[in-house]
Design brief:
It is a single chain. The protein is an alpha/beta fold and 251 residues long. The chain has two domains: 2-109 and 222-250, NAD(P)-binding Rossmann-like Domain (Rossmann fold), CATH 3.40.50.720; 115-219, Dihydrodipicolinate Reductase, domain 2 (2-Layer Sandwich), CATH 3.30.360.10. Helices cover 32% and strands 27% of the residues. It has seven helices and twelve strands. It has a seven-stranded parallel β-sheet with strand order 3-2-1-4-5-6-12, sandwiched between helices. Strands 8-9-7-10-11 form a five-stranded mixed β-sheet, with helices on one face. Helix 2 (69-79) links the parallel strand 4 and strand 5. The longest helix is centred in the middle third of the chain and has 17 residues, at 115-131. The chain is elongated and about 60 Å long. The structure holds 1,4-dihydronicotinamide adenine dinucleotide and ligand LZUJQKHR. The active site is at 143 (proton donor/acceptor), 147 (proton donor). Keywords: Amino-acid biosynthesis, Cytoplasm, Diaminopimelate biosynthesis, Lysine biosynthesis, NAD, NADP, Oxidoreductase. One of its GO terms (molecular function) is NAD binding.
C-alpha cells in the first residue's frame, strides 16, 4: 500500500485527487495538509501546519500554492518523503529549491501532469526546430476564473522547451498592452485568458508568411491531472534521490 500525504487537500485538485486515490487498490491518503482545515468532512486527518503531521507517508503529492513550498520541501527532506509537485506560479528561486532538495529525496515536478500536454510540447519543439526564425511563435493559454497565477506553468514549460531549440534565446512578451514597437523574431508572445470553468487549454501558434500552424491541447476534466500525479507518485516511490519529470515517466 502506498501511503500518500496530500498537500492542498481541500483545494479543487486536492479534492479530485482524494477521490481518485480512494478508488486505487494500492494507495491510500493517510493525511492532508491545507490552510483551510474545516472546509470539508475529510476521511483523513488534516493539518494546517505540515510539521504537526506525524503520519508517515511513502510520498507527498502537492497541489497547493507557492507560499507553502518552502515548508513542504523542508518537511519532505526532514522526513525523507519523496515528493510529487504540481504547484505552479513558482519563482525561479523556488524552482531551484526543488533541485536542491532532490539531492536528499526523489522529487517529481511537472507544471502539467496530463500526458497529452507533454506530447504537444514535443510536437511544438519539433515544429520550432524545423521552422527556425521564419515563423513567429505565440502561446495562448485559457483557464477557469479561479486560477491565481498567470501565465500558466504549462505556458512557461512550452516556451522553455521551444527556446531550447534556438541558439539565440527568445524573449517572452506577456500581452502587448502599451507596447509601441513591432514584434521581432526574438520574441515569444505569451497570453493568458481567464473565464468560467475552462479546465485548461494551451495553443502554440506558429505564424509564418501566408501560413499558420496551430498545435493545441484541451483538458476536458481535472481528472487527467490527478491521474498523472497518481502515476507519478507510483513511479517516484521506487526511485533514487534526484529530479524527475514527465519525460522520465513517459519514456
Ligand atoms: N501540474 C498540473 O498538472 C496542475 C497544476 N495545478 C496547480 O496546482 C495548484 C492548486 O490548484 P487548485 O487545486 O486548482 O487550487 P485551489 O486554490 O483550489 O487549491 C489550493 C489549496 O491549497 C491551499 N493552500 C494555499 N496556500 C497554502 C499554504 N501556504 N499551506 C497549505 N495550504 C495552502 C488552499 O487552502 C487550497 O485549498 C495551482 O498552483 C495550480 O496551478 C492545477 C491543476 C493541474
Ligand atoms: O490551475 C489550473 O487549473 C491548472 N494549472 C496548471 C498550469 O498552470 O499550467 C496546469 C493546468 O493547465 C491546470
Amino acid at each position: 500500500m502506498i501511503r500518500v500525504i496530500l498537500n492542498g487537500c481541500n483545494g479543487k485538485m486536492g479534492r479530485v485527487l482524494a477521490k481518485l486515490i480512494n478508488e486505487e487498490k494500492s494507495m491510500e491518503v493517510v493525511a492532508g495538509i491545507d490552510r483551510e482545515i474545516d472546509k470539508f468532512d475529510n476521511t483523513f486527518p488534516v493539518y494546517s501546519n505540515i510539521f504537526s503531521c506525524l503520519e508517515k507517508g511513502d510520498v507527498l503529492i502537492d497541489f497547493s500554492h507557492p507560499s507553502s513550498i518552502r515548508n513542504t520541501l523542508a518537511f519532505c527532506v526532514e522526513t525523507k518523503t519523496p515528493m510529487v509537485t504540481a504547484t505552479t506560479g513558482l519563482s525561479g528561486e523556488e524552482m531551484t529549491l526543488f533541485v536542491e532538495a532532490s539531492k536528499s529525496i526523489p522529487v517529481f515536478q511537472s507544471s502539467n501532469m496530463a500526458v497529452g500536454v507533454n506530447v504537444i510540447i514535443d510536437l511544438a519543439a519539433q515544429a520550432a526546430n524545423a521552422l527556425g526564425n521564419t515563423f513567429d511563435i505565440e502561446i495562448i493559454e485559457k483557464h477557469h476564473n479561479k486560477k491565481v497565477d498567470s501565465p500558466s506553468g504549462t505556458a512557461f514549460m512550452i516556451a522553455n522547451a521551444l527556446n531550447e531549440t534556438f541558439e539565440q534565446k527568445k524573449e517572452y512578451i506577456y500581452g502587448r498592452h502599451g507596447n509601441e514597437d513591432q514584434r521581432t523574431e526574438n520574441h515569444i508572445g505569451i497570453h493568458a485568458v481567464r473565464g468560467g470553468t475552462i479546465v485548461g487549454e494551451h495553443t502554440v501558434i506558429f505564424a509564418g508568411p501566408d501560413e499558420i500552424i496551430e498545435i493545441k491541447h484541451t483538458a476536458l476534466s481535472k481528472d487527467i491531472f490527478a491521474l498523472g500525479a497518481i502515476r507519478a507518485a507510483k513511479f517516484i516511490t521506487g526511485q533514487k534521490n534526484g529530479y524527475y519529470n514527465m519525460k522520465d515517466l513517459i519514456k
